[in-house]
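Follow-up to my earlier ticket, as requested here are the two runs.
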Amino acid sequence: MIEKLPVVIVLDNIRSQNNIGSIFRTADAFRVSELYLCGITATPPHREIHKTALGATESVSWKYFPSTLDSIRELRNAGYTIYAVEQTSNSTPIHLFYPAENEKIALIFGNEVQGVDEKVIREVTKCIEIPQFGTKHSLNIAVAAGIVIWDLLCKINYAIKL
């Protein structure tokens, strides 16, 4: 069995099943330990999720929570540090974010239109953002997840070598 990263991805009310499937696929590629699907986020089995996941729903563990706040409570009790990926007035640019050694991390990604719910943001340790320089200041959630998870994987795997 392949060793998984101490990282859980939390999807806060994601409406697109294609985005959910893409994030499953990214989670598989980068060895994420688990996905937490919350609120209106669809769960497998679902045709649209499977279309983009390409089988990753079988290799990535997942749980469903009616509320993202419920998932945060479980993660905090299990010793995870909770980060939201969201642009806020105090968010840390991703290139300046470095996890602590042996830190168990949960990353929350929010709804495609509204982002991470404000009640959820109040419960996290910190917000991380991907600096953007275009006119839209937003990325597709599946793209943002790929960038953040890849960056975190590099920092976890290569921090000692740097």
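Run two:
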Amino acid sequence: MQQKTITVLIDETGNSSVDLDGYAGHGCEKVLKDFQGDDFAKVQRKKPVFYSQTSEGQDRQLKSGR
């Protein structure tokens, strides 16, 4: 089983980013939504591994701000 890692960064101006590693498909979407809550994403980028057909999973990166 692949290790799952969630990295949350908040800069000095209040902008934040969430980086999810080791999550796949709808599991990734659910974890991302849990962190997002009622906030919305300014920018949402899928990592290259998201598009791969391997079983290692899909990763997402979310950037949001206030």
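The only thing I checked on run two: DSSP finds two helices and four strands in the chain. Let me know what else you need.
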